[in-house]
Amino acid sequence: MRQFLIANRHWLGFGFLLTFASAFGQTWFISLFAGDIKDRFGLTDGGWGLVYTVATLASAALLLSRGGVADTVRPARLAPLMALGFAASGLAFAFTPGLWVLMLALVGLRFCGQGMFSHMAMTAMGRWFRARRGRAVSIANLGHSAGEAVLPIVAVALIAALGWQATWVLVAGVLVLAVAPALATLGRERTAQSAAVATEAPGMGGRHWTRADALRHWLFPALLPILLTPGFIGTVVFFHQVHIAEVKGWTLAQMAPGYVVFAVLSVVSGLAAGWAADRFGPHRLLVGLLVPTGLGVALIGPAEAVGTWFVALGLIGMTQGIGASLWGAFWPAVYGTRNLGSVRALATVVMVVSTAIGPGLTGLLIDAGIDFPAQGLGLGIWCAGLCVLALAVQSSAALGVACAPRAASENAD
Q1: What pTM was estimated for this model as a whole?
Q2: Can you give the residue ranges of the Major facilitator superfamily (MFS) profile domain (predicted)?
Q3: What domain count does the chain have?
Q4: Sign of the C-alpha dihedral, residues 129, 131, 134, 139?
Q5: What CATH number did the domain enclosing 370 receive?
């Protein structure tokens, strides 16, 4: 592993920086400003959730139409351009004069952060690596965990010291002055062999699948609920953290260390899952993917001590770590690498849509008198049912062949 890290630090660093900087467009970061936004525009939990849902759905549609550019535009050019758009959206969010501008700013933040930054990182890892793809994906995804561990505490401190709008100005400055130049340097192609490697890595049936091919086959529709659920649950838990604090009588300061637990277990499970994906095949991780999240979300309802919140976040973090490594290795193995950006964009859109549906639906239930902790048990039962579906999908012979482990000698990872 040490030799692998040293030899590939440049390209792994590109993926890590993208996933780390994607934090500024993730729900858990934006939700830190929910109180200020609701006060400014007089929004209820349901109203704020609806605005967020519409904006996230719009960003998903934009990603579906533009995500394929990751197949045609060089990373060293595409990533800095997205960073500049990201910064502009952050400034618009800080100084929005009305709901329509707020909506557009949220579309930009969600499209750039949760959408394209994460999408570009995983597309690059899937194309640049093969035999050690699972490990490359898990290492690049450490940026997500690093952001979740560090940025909430930093952001809360900055909001207290500078105010929420000045915090977003600082975020925009970091994106323009630090992130964009670094991505331009790190994003050069791994080797001159990268295009050849992509051609030599077909998916199921020895084919390079297009987006249309994937939609017509039974596998992708069968995976939809499994794809939707982790993002749905992870998003609504973070999105409604202020509401949960009010229901439970906790403070955000008391709850903040839970992010560290979430990040640590996400890192550990992600690295373990990356190794397991290379060793046994990524499809072997499907059955266990939702078990930790199901247990975690169910725990929130009866929780009384804030320590239970830490346990719940840790379990949810385990699913996030496993899922990041699983899907990053799964899509190129199953559908090939020639059209990887286009196919991954479709999968990413599904996950983005889940994060859009969650805040709106659960926010309306909260307005109707069903608090989020009370919703947790139902979500836990839903996860248990999907484990059975995952077992049926995993048993596919064609999937097993496509995801069979490959020897490291097959490509110079």
Answers
A1: 0.72
A2: 11-408
A3: 1
A4: negative
A5: 1.20.1250.20
DSSP-derived secondary structure for 85-113 = HHHHHHHHHHT--SHHHHHHHHHHHIIII
DSSP 275: H
Cα–Cα distance for residue pair 207/209, rounded to 1 Å:
6
Which tokens in the block code for residue 386? 């999907």
Residue 2 lies in a domain: no
3-state secondary structure of 395: coil
Residue keyed to tokens 């838990």 = 237
Q: Is residue 412 in some structural domain?
A: no
- Among the listed residues 148, 109, 100, the one whose alpha carbon sits nearest the alpha carbon of residue 263: 148
The answer to whether 339 and 209 have CB atoms below 8 angstroms apart is: yes
Is residue 3 one of the residues assigned to a domain? no
Residues 146, 266 contacting (CB under 8 angstroms): no
3-state secondary structure of 17: helix
* Nearby residues of 241 by Cβ (< 8 Å), 6 or more positions away: 28, 31, 252, 255
Residue with tokens 């030799």: 3
**Within a 10 A sphere around the Cβ of 352, how many other Cβ atoms?**
27
Tens digit of pLDDT per residue, the chain (413 long)? 677 777 777 788 899 999 999 999 988 789 888 888 888 888 887 788 888 888 888 988 888 888 878 878 888 899 999 999 999 999 999 998 888 899 999 999 999 988 899 889 888 887 777 767 778 888 888 888 788 778 888 998 999 899 999 999 999 999 999 999 999 988 776 553 444 344 457 778 888 888 889 888 999 999 999 988 998 898 888 878 888 888 888 887 888 888 888 888 988 898 888 888 888 888 889 999 999 999 999 998 888 888 999 999 999 999 988 988 888 788 888 888 778 778 878 887 887 778 777 877 888 888 888 888 888 888 999 999 999 999 998 888 777 777 777 654 444 45
Nearest Cα to Cα of residue 296 among 275, 317, 281, 280: 317
The answer to whether position 235 is within a domain reads yes
- Minimal CA–CA distance to 346: which of 58, 60, 56? 60
Show the tokens assigned to 135.
Answer: 């490990």
Closest CA to 319 of 307, 331, 330, 327: 327
- Find the distance separating the first CA and the last CA of the chain, reported in whole Å: 11
Classify residue 137 by its DSSP letter: H
